[in-house]
Amino acid sequence: MVRERFQSESEPIVWEVWGEHGAILRLPVPQPSVAQEPIPCTAILQEENFALEHGGLLPELRLRFETYGRLNPAKDNACLVFHALTGSAHLAGTYGELALKGLSPLEQAFGPQGWWDDLVGAGKPLDPARHYVICANHIGSCYGSTGPLTPNPQTGLAYGPTFPRLTIRDLARAQARLLDLLGVEKVTVIGGSLGGMVAMEFALLFPARVNKLVVLAAPPVHGPWARAFNRLSRDAITADPAYKGGYYSEQPLGLQLARSIAMLSYRAPKSFAERWRQTPEQGESYVVYQGEKFIRRFDANAYLTLSLAMDTHDVGRGRGGIGIALERLQPIPSLFVGIDTDVLYTASEVRDAAELAGGRYEEIQSPHGHDAFLIETEQVGAILRSFL
């Protein structure tokens, strides 16, 4: 994390950069993080074929995951947090030197600090003293779970571009297997962006296992606007000669451009204007820089796999339409959180989903667009605390 302080210690307003995100923030009074150093774990969930919705098979299913707190005797205090497109299982805390060294180069490049650290810990909305918090890397990703970089047990070689096609429902079913392994019977599911899509699908697939549902900045269907951004990002990768049909030896520069394109949908014009009104060319430099950083910490085939999975998202598919599907969620206490400046998944989309699901709707006020669910942790924390 890099912080540039603009005022005195008594008025902590900073320009803060963490991971792939940056914003001008007024810092809250610091709170302690998770008490113990997080331990990355890997679970082999099935040694036989894991059937996928589109007909593919995974001979072996592995999930990288982390847990915080303990499962209570009733086995119902668990909170399962689903990460976004390029997130990881490292939700909170800071890895020690030994833990970091034991991870893959891409996981090391992701960094030692958890991606939602401000919300997990003593006295925070997800408090390990009360909750058994779980976060797992999605299958198809590149941070320890079965994905394109994983050796195929049948060939001994990395899947690469032969990795089977996934859907959001596949991602949800895989994490349900993890709950089985951990002995969790009922769970509160929480997710933002792609993670919110998985949370909705999990609740529809396994309603009897869900205590509460929290969806942040995610729609019930991946519509034409969002799909267009995904298509451009994928084309940026596959059109790069260095992609070599997916059999590359180093990450193609097309992945860098893909991330830069995506960043335009993750932020908002107001955010750029506030930061670079006097130096507009720096807005261009910002998205290029984000792409340059990203290529060091993610995999092109994993990006394609998860991007295509997002495009399958439609809670109404095979369920009689979006309205009928969301009505099935009405028995589950639910919270839907929109963002007033989100140009990727608009606040109105999220609000409409909340109404159909009979859920509560809250809205983050922020100039930062879609990424506000990661940036505005004080607002998010207050909203979560009042619901959980």
Automatic annotation (TrEMBL):
Keyword Signal annotated: no
Active site residues of this protein: S193 (nucleophile), D342, H370
Recorded catalytic activity of this chain's protein: L-homoserine + acetyl-CoA = O-acetyl-L-homoserine + CoA
GO molecular function: homoserine O-acetyltransferase activity
Domain AB hydrolase-1 intervals: 115-375
Predominant place of localization: cytoplasm
Residues where substrate binds: R259, D371
Enzyme class: transferase
UniProt keyword terms in alphabetical order: Acyltransferase, Amino-acid biosynthesis, Cytoplasm, Methionine biosynthesis, Transferase
Pathway of action: Amino-acid biosynthesis; L-methionine biosynthesis via de novo pathway; O-acetyl-L-homoserine from L-homoserine: step 1/1
GO biological process per UniProt: homoserine metabolic process; methionine biosynthetic process
PANTHER family membership: HOMOSERINE O-ACETYLTRANSFERASE
Subunit note: Homodimer.
Similarity-based family: Belongs to the AB hydrolase superfamily. MetX family.
HAMAP family hit by this protein: MetX_acyltransf
Name recorded for this polypeptide: Homoserine O-acetyltransferase
